[in-house]
Amino acid sequence: xxxxxxxxxxxxxxxxxxxxxxxxxxxxxxxxxxxxxxxxxxxxxxxxxxxxxxxxxxxxxxxxxxxxxxxxxxxxxxxxxxxxxxxxxxxxxxxxxxxxxxxxxxxxxxxxxxxxxxxxxxxxxxxxxxxxxxxxxxxxxxxxxxxxxxxxxxxxxxxxxxxxxxxxxxxxxxxxxxxxxxxxxxxxxxxxxxxxxxxxxxxxxxxxxxxxxxxxxxxxxxxxxxxxxxxxxxxxxxxxxxxxxxxxxxxxxxxxxxxxxxxxxxxxxxxxxxxxxxxxxxxxxxxxxxxxxxxxxxxxxxxxxxxxxxxxxxxxxxxxxxxxxxxxxxxxxxxxxxxxxxxxxxxxxxxxxxxxxxxxxxxxxxxxxxxxxxxxxxxxxxxxxxxxxxxxxxxxxxxxxxxxxxxxxxxxxxxxxxxxxxxxxxxxxxxxxxxxxxxxxxxxxxxxxxxxxxxxxxxxxxxxxxxxxxxxxxxxxxxxxxxxxxxxxxxxxxxxxxxxxxxxxxxxxxxxxxxxxxxxxxxxxxxxxxxxxxxxxx
Length: 538
Known about the structure:
alpha+beta; Serum Albumin, Chain A, Domain 1; seven-stranded antiparallel sheet
């Protein structure tokens, strides 16, 4: 099942061309990782093996955005069925919001031990491999282990973000517990330059243990003991018992039908539902005209704002939500929210539906299997903490908890926080169209919305859909826009009451990839010009 690119009404010049293949494809933000996934396909692996190989490799070659100590989510199309995997971790059992508020904090800290939750990514790799993979995990993780052992030349965007992280942790990481980040990632006293070779023996040894034990060493073995000892040294909450009790969750993906296509996301605690709520609102409009007009941008932005207002109020660990995904995605509720959109920019408020530096990768194989996968440490390298000698950079995903006791996302023990990383998938009439994703914190649902409307409403091919100028709502009436957005759009939106900020650095507007199956049965891949993206095809 394919998209129709013939009705193309897009006039902005594409920066790259679509890449085609037939026997396999891997699209991600770093060329070496894409090639690692393709190598596994050529060894007889399937799309799942390629996804896990790419994900593990990305922890080495793009550590500025993800790591072994982070979380992941995946949507997997296997034998005409879509599966969802939530590999995000819980807060430690010793976690205490009262301890934070009692010390005068009004919001969750960004760095250090307090925002560290149980890392889910290694367990996710093992679960995917066990359920759907063809090759042993020891074979699948070989490319990542080799790059960590022998080193690799750092790519330009990664070098740029690494330098930013060095400046940030130099400022924020004043305690002794942060020294291991500098020892691991800046052993020469600075961030590596583009083309400079970096390696991490500890990282390699950790990946080898994960491969050999199916991630058991990370949660119930030698690596868990090292994490526990590091935490105990500083009186932190994370304990071996928290790791020992963790397993990823297979979940039912959620979707809305948008103009005949089913758009799929992972359910909460992830915020992919925000993109679905916005699409539900937008399908009440006719976008038969050109994309590059003020009214089109206005409606897209307003729908996204309303969806985000609901998401920020209601999304949490689903065990603690007082509103269901079904209620948030109902047609009646979408109509209520759509009715709020007028000629002027809204300062969005949540409704009442129950009144009545992340990395993304897409893989596909010649048998029709496809994977949409995303993983992150959050805010670049994460908490700034690295378990000594292991290369495990612990994430800071707990920063997304609220310290408001009335919020369903209130920080509490053994609870998953609101989560920003979201893989997407597109189907039509029960057949796979393909995986897509746009990484980048709170930009992600907004990126999904823009890519999907570019494809479906404006007839763009996958690469054009990713290349097209982007906007990002940040708060209130403020909307950031890439400098490539036509000036008449920005001025027209300002006249409608939007506070427009034009940015010349595109990194904050997300980084995405996509693979779709064509009418000929071949694969069409697209990757992000805003980073060092690559589509490896076979």
